Amino acid sequence: MMETLNASDAKREFGELLIKAQHEPIGINKNGKPVAVVVSAAEYEALEKLKEERLKAAIKEGLDDIEAGKTTEGNSVIDRLKKRVI
């Protein structure tokens, strides 16, 4: 389970928070609700790389579908959506 601090403790113990965040994510709550998570720069870079890889895979999948002819006319998609809503 992730360690969590309230915002005023995080502010008061900011230096310690930065040290802890190098080893594991630290949650920050304000008024009892989660508002942020502090992670190390390395963890952030890894998350961004993962997001980029997933986006590239999704784009490739879409391009492969287009190349394979797995497409639908835009108007027919809109018509089907309208039928679901109405």
Question: Can you characterise this structure?
Answer:
This protein is an alpha+beta fold and 86 residues long. The chain folds into 2 domains: 3-39, YefM-like fold (3-Layer(aba) Sandwich); 43-85, no CATH class. It contains 4 helices and 3 strands. Strands 1-2-3 form a 3-stranded mixed sheet. A hairpin with a 2-residue loop joins strand 2 (26-30) and strand 3.
What's the short story on this structure?
By secondary structure, this protein is of the alpha+beta class. It has helices spanning 7-12, 14-21, 41-67, 74-85; strands at residues 3-6, 26-30, 33-38. It is 62% helix and 17% strand.
Biggest beta sheet attributes: 3 strands, mixed
Helical amount: 55-70%
Strand order of the largest sheet: 1-2-3
Identify low-pLDDT runs.
none
SSE order: EHHEEHH
Number of helices: 4
Q: Gyration radius, to the nearest Å?
A: 22 Å
The coarse silhouette is elongated
Distance between the ends: 45 Å
Mean of all residue-level pLDDT scores: 95
The tally of domains stands at 2
Structural class: alpha+beta
Q: What is the β-strand count?
A: 3
- Portion in strands: 15-25%
Family: Belongs to the phD/YefM antitoxin family.
Protein name: Antitoxin
Organism: Spartinivicinus poritis
Function: Antitoxin component of a type II toxin-antitoxin (TA) system.
Annotation keywords:
elongated; 86 residues; single chain; YefM-like fold; Antitoxin_Phd/YefM; alpha+beta; 3-stranded mixed beta sheet; YefM-like_sf
